[in-house]
Every structure is written in structure tokens, then in C-alpha cells.
Design brief:
313 residues; mainly alpha; two-stranded antiparallel ribbon; two-stranded antiparallel sheet; 54% helix; metal-binding; repeat; EF_Hand_1_Ca_BS
């Protein structure tokens, strides 16, 4: 099961990292070559209720909280935000909200409130019933059959082999990319899905899946050309024509560092008025709306979360 594709543009939350592919995100974010700031806002504020909450803050309170956030991003307290500082802050924001969501899910799934989530509780939350798996028999329902892989991940996350997952183990189950002891499982899971010849690598053909060129077509469609380019230039670091386990990991796990760096560069490019490749508080306040429709503030969400604007982070 793919954990998610690395997007080619901005507007991706860790919370929905597996939902958007590179080409689609780019298409939505830049329509006909024009940047859509409303897409930025929609991508992270999300539902209308959050947008309404953002609007309720008065201008003075917005600035006060924004200045507090700027101060925290500025790690060396020199009065400027660099690409590195912005990128680090955005990555921290991604992880914070991913962990918050996992904690909320844990409470919902723990039906008997005993502090653990059992496999049966997870089943009931997902399907309203417990799905039984036979090791030698595939289920007729393809979606339910795919649930088998979730059980393997559940068992791997359960380090103490107890009857259920603790909060820490549940986070490992929901976000295996964030936990070191799950790395081997993530790689093996990807190999089981994509390594069709069992050689321990993923070739370009296996990477492209079931695609076969239309015999009447003179060339591959655009999306295939994009995928081939990503295989060659983004993932196959040693240029041997196949992805080894570590290269495979960079494909199946969302590259949040790359996303954060891209957003940081985007902000500096748009807001740096004097060309010094960094942002002052004055430049940010001059472009406050742009900053509040970026991942640096989780599209305004951080202004409603005292974890970010409170004096002590």
C-alpha cells in the first residue's frame, strides 16, 4: 500500500499526504500558469468552519499572534527568517498536526476507554464489524482484502505484543514514516506490492505498474513522461535503472522536508522586497495575507492554536 506520493507543489498537509499526487497538486495550485492563493488557503484551512474562525480574528489580534509566530520561527533571533528557519518550522507544523490527529483518532477508536486500541476496535471503527482473514483464502471484496495489509502493519506497530496498541504504538501504526522501528516494514510492504519479479528492487516497469503503451500511440501520455522523469531524477540516485530499498523509501514515504523547503523558497521569492533572500518582520507584515495563506502558518490555522503563538512552544 502506497503511503503517499511526493507532491510537486505546495498545499499538502501531512494529514492528507497520501491523497494528492504530484501532477494533480501542481495543476490545482497553478491553473494556466497562475498562482492560486485561494488554493493555498483551502489546502490547509480546509473546511469552511476553519475559514470562518480565521476571519473572526480582528486585524490587531492577527498581527499580535503573527508577530509571536515570527519570533519563534527566527531561531537565531537576528530579526530575519531564512529558508532554513522557515523550512524547519513548516516541518515541525506538519508533524504536530499529524500527531494531534492521531491522538484524536486514538480516543475515537478506543471504544472501551481502556487506554489501548485493539484490532477488533479498529475494525469496528472502520467497517462496523470485525473482518476475519484466512491466511490461505482471499476475500471476495477487494477493499476488505486490502485491509489485510493494515493488520500486518498493526501487528508490527504492537511492540509489546499486548492485546492492543498504546497511544505511541497507534501513532506508529498511523504514521509509520515517523517511527524508526517501522522503516523495515514500510520498505517490505512496498516491495510486496511493486516488486513483481521478487529480486528485491523496483524497476521502471514495476514503478509504472500496469501501464502499457497504446500500440496506436506514437508516444507515452504526459503523466507517464512525468512519472518516468521522477523515477530517473528523483528516486534512482545511483542511476542503475532500479530502486533499491532506501531509494524505494524516498518514493513511498512523503518527503515533507522537500515540501517544506519548496514552500520556504516560494515565500521568500514572493515576499522578499529587498532581495536579501530572507524575510524581515516588516516584509511579512507588508504581505500579511500571503503569509497567512501559506504553510508557514498552516494557512492561518496556527493563529488559533496557542501551541504556536503562546510564549512557550
Amino acid at each position: 500500500m502506497r503511503l503517499g506520493q511526493r507532491p510537486a507543489a505546495l498545499g499538502l498537509l501531512l494529514l492528507c499526504a497520501a491523497a494528492a499526487g504530484a501532477g494533480k497538486a501542481e495543476e490545482l495550485h497553478y491553473q494556466q500558469g497562475e498562482h492560486r492563493s485561494d488554493y493555498d488557503r483551502e489546502a490547509l484551512l480546509g473546511v469552511q468552519e476553519d475559514v470562518d474562525e480565521y476571519v473572526k480574528l480582528g486585524h490587531e489580534e492577527q498581527q499580535k499572534r503573527l508577530q509571536a509566530i515570527i519570533k519563534k520561527i527566527d531561531l537565531d533571533s537576528d530579526g530575519f527568517l531564512t529558508e532554513s528557519e522557515l523550512s524547519s518550522w513548516i516541518q515541525m507544523s506538519f508533524k504536530h498536526y499529524a500527531m494531534q490527529e492521531a491522538k484524536q483518532q486514538f480516543v475515537e477508536y478506543d471504544k472501551n476507554n481502556d487506554g489501548t486500541v485493539t484490532w477488533d476496535e479498529y475494525n469496528i471503527q472502520m467497517y462496523d464489524r470485525v473482518i476475519d482473514f484466512d491466511e490461505n483464502t482471499a476475500l471476495d471484496d477487494a477493499e476488505e482484502e486490502s485491509f489485510r495489509q493494515d493488520k500486518k502493519r498493526f501487528e508490527k506497530a504492537n511492540q509489546d505484543s499486548g492485546p492492543g496498541l498504546s497511544l505511541e504504538e497507534f501513532i506508529a501504526f498511523e504514521h509509520p514514516e515517523e517511527v524508526d522501528y517501522m522503516t523495515e516494514f514500510v520498505i517490505q510492504e512496498a516491495l510486496e506490492e511493486h516488486d513483481k519479479n521478487g529480486d528485491g528492487f523496483v524497476s521502471l516497469e514495476e514503478f509504472l505498474g500496469d501501464y502499457r503503451r497504446d500500440p496506436t500511440a506514437n508516444e507515452d501520455p504526459e503523466w507517464i513522461l512525468v512519472e518516468k522523469d521522477r523515477f530517473v531524477n528523483d528516486y534512482d540516485k545511483d542511476n542503475d535503472g532500479r530502486l533499491d530499498p532506501q531509494e524505494l523509501l524516498s518514493w513511498v514515504v512523503p518527503n515533507n522536508q522537500g515540501i517544506a523547503q519548496e514552500e520556504a523558497l516560494h515565500l521568500i521569492d514572493e515576499m522578499d522586497l529587498n532581495g536579501d533572500k530572507k524575510l524581515s518582520e516588516e516584509e511579512i507584515l507588508e504581505n500579511q495575507d500571503l503569509f497567512l495563506t501559506s504553510e508557514a502558518t498552516d494557512y492561518g490555522r496556527q493563529l488559533h492554536d496557542d501551541y504556536f503563538y503562546h510564549d512557550e512552544l
